[in-house]
UniProtKB/TrEMBL annotation:
Transmembrane intervals: 45-65
Record InterPro entries: ABC3_permease_C
Cell membrane recorded as keyword: yes
The protein's name in its UniProt record: FtsX-like permease family protein
Cellular localization per UniProt: Cell membrane
Record membrane topology: Multi-pass membrane protein
Organism for this UniProt entry: Streptomyces lancefieldiae
Length: 80
């Protein structure tokens, strides 16, 4: 469950990142008045999105393993 939650954070970051970044990129291209076209590399964005989800899921593995080895009563009573 912890690993899935971490993967969902990756999905959220993968959606919000381009959603916030692309309008700013478009604005920079328009303001700079360059002849460079504004293009969205869909294949590269999909690859980065997939890698992001996998990395965040992998990052959640250590806490998930630690949580699975700890008794709930011990985890609640610990005061860290």
């Amino acid at each position: 469950m912890v690993t899935v939650e971490c993967a969902l954070y990756g999905v959220l970051g993968g959606i919000l990142g381009p959603a916030l970044g692309m309008p700013y990129s478009w604005l920079v291209v328009r303001v700079a008045e360059t002849s460079a076209p504004f293009t969205v590399p869909a294949g590269e964005l999909a690859a980065v999105f997939t890698a992001l989800v996998l990395v965040t899921a992998a990052a959640g593995m250590l806490p998930a393993l630690r949580a699975s080895r700890t008794s709930p009563t011990v985890a609640v009573s610990q005061n860290e």
